[in-house]
TrEMBL record:
Matches recorded under InterPro entries: AAA+_ATPase, ABC1_TM_dom, ABC1_TM_sf, ABC_transporter-like_ATP-bd, ABC_transporter-like_CS, P-loop_NTPase, Type_1_exporter
PROSITE patterns: ABC_TM1F (PS50929), ABC_TRANSPORTER_1 (PS00211), ABC_TRANSPORTER_2 (PS50893)
Native source species: Castellaniella hirudinis
SMART domains attached to this UniProt entry: AAA (SM00382)
Location of the protein in the cell: Cell membrane
Keywords for the protein's UniProt record, in alphabetical order: ATP-binding, Cell membrane, Membrane, Nucleotide-binding, Transmembrane, Transmembrane helix
UniProt biased composition (Acidic residues): 740-752
SUPFAM superfamilies in the record: ABC transporter transmembrane region, P-loop containing nucleoside triphosphate hydrolases
Residue span of region Disordered: 724-752
GO molecular-function terms, A-Z: ATP binding
Protein name (database record): ABC transporter ATP-binding protein
Domain ABC transporter per the UniProt entry, residue ranges: 493-726
């Protein structure tokens, strides 16, 4: 075909791993030498109903067909063809156009978006010239998801950044380890003269030289006491260091978590994060304080013992060390398998923690819907998976450790056989053989100990990797390199051509809005219209995908994040209170606030009266998440918390939507005090709460459709008027004349 490279030499016409059912369908559609370059399985029809379809790009044409291979259509490849992707409200769209018109449009749920993106990438690769030597138009096949990367021992080496501040103590500890190991090697060496110069001559009639015996035994006692003292000092120093490394690791991980954006937490489970910071750091600390020390001791003992054995008798030493290569190979073989097993076990353990983190805070909902058995079943299922994985690891480990012990026993047997033969020939003395047996016993004990440390090492490596997965994550809301100070904030907020995407879904489309200092703006619209997303962007919980948001003329991305957010008071629909007293929760934004300031904020929030009715007043505990208080009481404490920091900008996100009318009136009085003199952005479903707003901004599908005061918007009889009538009548807003859902989606997709 002119303008496009073709290559039909591939043996497999489906190089991208097309699922088997669709291969059968395509078998009736493709020619013998036609090769598939990309595909998309659509799951929506033209009327947004679920239905299966397949879009295929070959080296000759675009092809569309259904599951029954009927009603297929195709378009030969031409240089003027274009393939474009759009998405809106969970629906994706692939359009095929030429220079004059749209030839076809297919829809799918965003679950299929990766397939659509690969298909368009294949089309772009086909249109653009391929580099020399490459197969034209052949995109890389989508690899299967390998899951989380395997933990590597290098994760443990990365802990050095936390150990560096304690390098002096570590150096002292390692020197003490070296000295203690050397001292422990003295007693076996002194057995040689005791045997050869004292005991064997005594059996042959030579009197015992007690002075020499006293020297030898004194050397044994002194070396043992020295080894004990050095070992105690070494253990104390290294344990002190390891505890501080573990504490620093936990603090650094938690501090980094606090700096990550909400986007990161949106994809993580609470139980998993708690497990990483808690149990994983404890495991690393235990490894550093105990097992790493044992590992260094074992390595030093093995190396120094091997050197002593070679110095005493090289031939017998070589026979003694014969099983060593096989043991080292086994350690390496088992290590790789344990690494994968412990990583799986850590993931399953996080699932168990996630179940606990879900059900314990939500125990009231569990009991209200009588789902105790279901939650127990969830826990049992996760616990059973944990049991299966640990059984596999234990089966491998239970085979490995006895095998190493057997090899060490065989090595000891080799020493006996070869040593007796050398003694019979007069090559070595009985004292040399006795010393060899003492050394080799220690050598193999240490070798067996080192092999057992493989398990704890891989557990610690798996934990270190999971912690560094957090530390390596870069926030999607970065701090500016040279932050601009937010001083004397007037409160002018400008949104200029702002766009935002959640993953592949566009939520805010080219939105512009100017909010004057001290102005109160109400955001209204259907659920999902983008109101809360817009507030999140203004708070810089997320960064815009396009456009810019300015505070007093300065891009908010130029401010230090904490400095900027201290200028914003936020009152949420579901207020979150921490476990502690009422006073501590009110003063959360200003921990140094005095009691008089706290009481003044509570009075302004109309919370003072009910607080005084609590058993300990301002010192009463609110319970976890404020469960000891009603929803309205929690909300008024939340308002007092915002009042105390005295912010120039105030954001109210459905502050009165979940309370009764009487409580709403109390909260509304508190809000009247709160908004006075501040730039205020208020989201509310109850339009009556926004009548005093300077302007109402009506949003729909991520766009502003109307702006004006309450009376003006009612007079226009547009989107706001429909919302108002719906609330007056207690029903859903009336749809515009001639409205159809597919037309609505079409319009949105075209605009996006």
């Amino acid at each position: 075909m002119p303008g496009f490279p073709t290559d039909s030499s591939s043996a497999d016409p489906y190089p991208l791993g097309l699922p088997e059912p669709w291969r059968t369908v395509l078998a009736t559609q493709l020619t013998t030498d036609e090769r598939v370059l990309g595909w998309l399985r659509t799951d929506l029809d033209a009327h947004l109903r679920y239905g299966d379809g397949l879009i295929v790009l070959t080296d000759r044409r675009w092809l569309a067909c259904g599951a029954d291979a009927q009603a297929s259509r195709s378009w030969p490849l031409r240089p003027d063809l274009e393939a474009r992707l759009h998405d809106y409200a969970g629906v994706g769209s692939l359009e095929l156009t030429d220079a004059h018109a749209r030839l076809a449009r297919w829809r799918y749920t965003l679950e299929r978006q990766p397939e659509a993106q690969r298909l368009v990438a294949a089309w772009q690769a086909l249109r653009e010239p391929a580099p020399p030597g490459a197969v034209p138009g052949t995109p890389e096949a989508p690899a299967a998801d390998p899951g989380p990367a395997a933990p590597r021992a290098s994760s443990l080496f990365r802990l050095w950044r936390f150990a560096r501040p304690y390098s002096r103590q570590l150096t002292v500890g390692l020197l003490l380890t070296l000295a203690a190991t050397a001292a422990s090697l003295v007693p076996p060496y002194l057995t040689m003269p005791l045997m050869d110069d004292v005991l064997i001559p005594f059996q042959n009639g030579v009197p015992i030289d007690y002075h020499r015996v006293t020297l030898y035994l004194g050397g044994l006692l002194a070396s043992s006491i020295l080894a004990w003292g050095l070992g105690w000092a070494r253990s104390a120093i290294l344990a002190w260091v390891s505890e501080r490394i573990g504490a620093d690791l936990r603090t650094a991980t938690y501090q980094h978590l606090q700096q990550l954006s909400l986007q990161y937490f949106g994809g993580k489970r609470t139980g998993d994060l708690i497990a990483r910071i808690g149990s994983e750091s404890d495991r690393i600390c235990l490894f550093l304080s105990l097992h790493l020390l044992d590992f260094f001791t074992d390595v030093l003992m093995i190396v120094m013992t091997a050197a002593v054995l070679l110095a005493i008798d090289p031939l017998l030493a070589l026979a003694t060390l014969a099983p060593l290569p096989l043991i080292l190979w086994m350690i390496h073989w088992v290590r790789d398998r344990l690494r994968h097993g412990f990583e799986k076990a850590d993931r399953v353990w996080s699932e168990i923690t996630n179940v606990l983190a879900d059900t314990i805070p939500g125990i009231r909902v569990v009991k209200a819907f009588a789902q105790e058995r279901r939650e127990v079943a969830r826990f049992r299922e996760a616990n059973d998976r944990n049991l299966v994985i640990n059984d596999r690891v234990n089966a491998l480990w239970s085979l490995f450790t006895p095998t190493v012990t057997l090899l060490t026993e065989l090595g000891l047997l080799v020493v006996w056989i070869f040593g007796i033969w050398l003694v019979s020939r007069g090559s070595i003395t009985v004292g040399v053989l006795t010393a060899f047996l003492a050394y080799i016993s220690r050598f193999y004990v240490r070798l067996d100990s080192m092999s057992r440390i493989v398990s704890t090492t891989q557990r610690a490596a798996a934990g270190a990797k999971r912690i560094f997965d957090i530390l390596d994550h870069v926030s999607s809301v970065p701090e500016p390199a040279a932050p601009h100070r937010a001083e004397h904030v007037a409160g002018r907020i400008e949104l200029s051509h702002v766009s935002f995407r959640y993953g592949s879904r566009t939520v805010i489309h080219d939105l512009s809005l100017d909010i004057a200092p001290g102005e109160m703006v109400g955001l209204v619209g259907h659920s999902g219209s983008g109101k809360s997303t817009l507030v999140n962007l203004i708070c810089r919980f997320y960064d815009v995908s396009g456009g810019v948001i300015r505070l007093d003329g300065t891009d908010i991305r130029r401010y230090a994040i904490a400095d900027y957010r201290r200028r914003i008071g936020l009152v949420l629909q579901e207020p979150f209170l921490f476990y502690g007293t009422v006073a501590e929760n009110i003063a959360y934004g200003r921990p140094d606030a005095g009691r008089a300031e706290i009481v003044a904020a509570a009075r302004a929030a109309h919370a003072h009266e009910f607080i005084l009715r609590l058993p300990q007043g301002y010192d009463s505990l609110v319970g976890e998440r404020g469960q000891a208080l009603s929803g309205g009481e929690r909300q008024r404490i939340s308002i007092a918390r915002a009042l105390l920091i005295d912010p120039p900008i105030l954001i109210l996100d459905e502050a009165t939507s979940s309370v009764d009318t009487t409580t709403e009136n109390e909260i509304q009085k508190a809000l009247d005090n709160l908004v006075r003199g501040r730039t205020t952005i208020s989201i509310a479903h109850r339009l009556s709460t926004l009548r005093e707003a300077d302007r109402l901004v009506v949003m729909d599908r991520g766009r502003i459709v109307e702006i004006g005061r309450h009376e003006e918007l009612l007079a226009r009889d547009g989107a706001y008027a429909r919302l108002h009538r719906a609330q007056q009548q207690g029903e859903s807003p009336a749809a515009p004349p001639g409205w159809d859902e597919t037309d609505d989606i079409d319009e949105a997709l075209d605009a996006s």
